[in-house]
Amino acid sequence: MSESRAEWGKRIECMFSGIVPWYDRLNRILSLRRDVGWRRALVQGLALSASPGVLDLAAGTLDVALELAGRFPHGRIVAVDFSLAMLRQGQAKITDRPQPVPLSLIAADAYALPFPDNQFDAVTMAFGIRNLLDRAAALMEIQRVLAPGGQLAILEFVPPQTGYFLLVYRFYLYHLLPWLGRLLSPRGFAYRYLAESIGAFPSASEFSRELQDTGFEQVRIQALTGGVAYLFYGRK
Questions:
Q1: Is the distance from CB of 149 to CB of 49 less than 8 angstroms?
Q2: 1 three-class SS
């Protein structure tokens, strides 16, 4: 019997909450620190005013939200995640900073965001969309809270589709990455899930069509690090 959306969400939330102590360190190690540059590129690709309202969805430990706050110090940055443990881990990064950070943290469900319609100039999401069982429903909810003309920016892993690099990447994804996850974290199963979820995600062109099918226009994509990760941008 297949899981309901709520059951799936609870299972994924428990998994992510369970790896909080190792999450940032393993992100840096497993990506050879490329994840830092990828998140920076996500934010740099936004064309916004000096004081925008931006929602960072699936905010995790706030790497993207802090990048947004640094680039838009006069903006309204709201970070949302379904894992309180992740947000609390990110809160420590804010506390450690010498200057106040214009950032609000909210624990909420991506399918039922606690905001009125047409609230944000942009919504960002890094490595979160593939963890949602019903991507179309989440994208429609993002549409709802975006202001007319507002931007969506998504960073996600997309396995290479062809070529020699595909063989190398598949070996890393399905063998080396889970082994490293078991070696460096007592919750190694989470990194087996990571490999499986990346492998199940659609190609860049297929996901671009999903964005268009849910009403986003001016969809553009950018490959990062040989196509290991992609940036997707669209407008309401």
A1: no
A2: coil
- Tell whether 110 is covered by a domain: yes
Residue 155 belongs to a domain: yes
**Total domains, the chain:** 1
Report the alpha-carbon distance of residue 188 to residue 182 in Å, rounded: 4
Using CA atoms, how far residue 45 sits from 6, 41, 218, 224, in Å, is 33, 6, 14, 13
Residue 189 has pLDDT above 80, yes or no: no
pTM value > 0.85: yes
Classify residue 64: in a domain, yes or no.
yes
192 assigned to some structural domain:
no
134 or 195, which is more confident?
Answer: 134
Q: How far is CA 197 from the centre of its chain?
A: 13
Instruction: Quote the DSSP letter at residue 236.
Output: -
Please write the tens of the pLDDT for every residue from 213-230.
999 999 999 999 888 899
In contact, 30 and 177? CB cutoff 8 Å: yes
pLDDT at 4: 85
Average predicted confidence (pLDDT) for the chain: 89
pLDDT band at 166 (very low <50, low <70, confident <90, very high): low
Amino acid at 101: V
DSSP-assigned letters across all residues of 194-234:
HHHHHHHSPPHHHHHHHHHHTT-EEEEEEEEGGGTEEEEEE
pLDDT at residue number 162: 64
Residue 215: give its domain's CATH number. Answer: 3.40.50.150
Name the nearest CA neighbour of 181 among 198, 167, 166, 165: 198
**Residues spanned by the domain of 150:** 5-159+204-235
Position 208 pLDDT exceeds 70 = yes
